[in-house]
Amino acid sequence: MPNSRTAARRPSAGKPGRPPAPVDLASSSASYYARTPWWAKVLVVFLVSRVVTTILLLIFASMQAQNPWTAASPDYFSFASIWDGHWYYIVSVAGYPSDLPVTADGHIGENAWAFMPAYPMLVRLIGAITGGSFAVVAVWVSVGFALGAALMFYRLMALVLPGSQALYSVVLFCFAPLSPILQVAYAESMGLFFLTLGLYLLLQRRYWLLLLVIVPMSLTRPSGLAFALMLGLHVIYRWTKRRTEPFPVPERVAAVVAGGFSAAMGFAWPLIAWAVTGSASAYTDTELAWRASYVGYGELVPFAGWIAGANWWVPEPLGVLLLILAVALFACAMFTPWVRRIGVDLRLWVASYALYLLAVFFPQSSTFRLLMPMFPLWGALAQPRSRTYRILLVLVLIAGQVGWIYIGWLVGENDWTPP
User: Transmembrane segments in this chain: where (predicted)?
Assistant: First the structure.
């Protein structure tokens, strides 16, 4: 006889057992996504963005005609090492000149002192260890720091925005029109990584650790003076709010020291250039050489570059009027609700860096690249939750990549649009 307990569990004839409950795929997927670590989500975003950008760069490489750096239709690594990548190559193999080059009319010409040492020296070190060529090592160093910057950017945005908005900020960062620069032989990836890490430590009030970040950051891309200005404004703000937001003496001392140290590092590279070349203006003269083809040679006068650039690009007085309007609109944007939500400290950084660019830069085709350190503003555009908005914005950014590679990176005949 069959076991009574087994029989009791067996469905009777003509009465089929209860069908299994349907699986809620949407709920299951949402649960799996919720359990996925933040770094894995960022990694997926980064990898997808690099696939898209790599495909675009390969398409344009196949279209590239012979140019001063490569033959026609170069391979990826050769295509990724043109423009300033060649200057970084010169620095990595030959260092910096002790005698500044002089043009036929007696002015300092373009030379390696315009390019800071941390990135090319790191590429040289890794190349010496691995035996890899400059082009290959430089690209992988850039990609590695780009991934680090994306991971740190999520951590930074997560301090001021909800998790979904922080992740979408990373999406915008990775798909931005200038994001191809993150995987070529340029120092931007390395500079953005240290800048993001520095801003993260600032928001965490870890001022002493900040000192360790300021050194490589300031020797990778020009950022020390802008970061010092931001720290000074940060100290003033915390001092005015000390009754409601405590600002203990140890933190005051640490923040002031960090600001002073960042200012010193902002002057370190010009001082090193002076020591090596014997010319106190070696660095500034070198930087001014790049704008000479537009407005001729002259002295570095704060804020004069943008005025001269406005008048060069647009007939007077319309150019200056448009510049004033752009500055005014930017200032107003800093007080919109979306920008205010990224927090005071990140807004202080964006404003400080914008003021630094206005003081020392001449607007030309590399302007968009030099705006990349304002990346915390992606957090303002990441706040709308509409799926349609988010998808369309990413598509617009990818279209921007196509436009930037075509205008800025692809080398044409008599090209005057360096990225």
Answer: 38-61, 125-154, 207-233, 253-274, 294-313, 320-339, 351-371, 391-411
Residues in the chain where the model's pLDDT stays below 50: 1-2, 4-14
Whether 142 and 184 have beta carbons less than 8 Å apart is answered as: yes
What is d(CA 197, CA 199) in angstroms, rounded to the nearest whole number?
Answer: 6
Q: Which residues contact 169 (CB under 8 A, 6 or more apart)?
A: 153, 154, 157, 161, 378, 379, 382
Residue range 129-163, pLDDT digits in tens: 999 999 999 999 999 999 999 999 999 999 999 99
Is residue 310 within 8 A of residue 363, CB to CB? The reply is: yes
Report the pLDDT value the prediction gives residue 115, as an integer from 0 to 100: 98
Residue pair 349/376 in contact by the 8 Å Cβ criterion: yes
Angle between helices 249-277 and 282-289 (to 10 degrees): 80
Q: What are phi and psi of 133, to 5 degrees?
A: -70, 160
Angle at 223 between CA 351 and CA 236, to 5 degrees: 45
Q: What's the one-letter identity of residue 196?
A: T
Specify the DSSP class assigned to residue 375. G
Burial class (CB in 10 A: 0-12, 13-18, 19+), 23: exposed
Helical pair 188-203 and 224-240, crossing angle rounded to 10 deg: 10
For residue 413, the model assigns a pLDDT of 85
Q: Which residues contact 387 (CB under 8 A, 6 or more apart)?
A: none
Q: Could you tell me the pTM of the whole model?
A: 0.92
SS3 111: coil
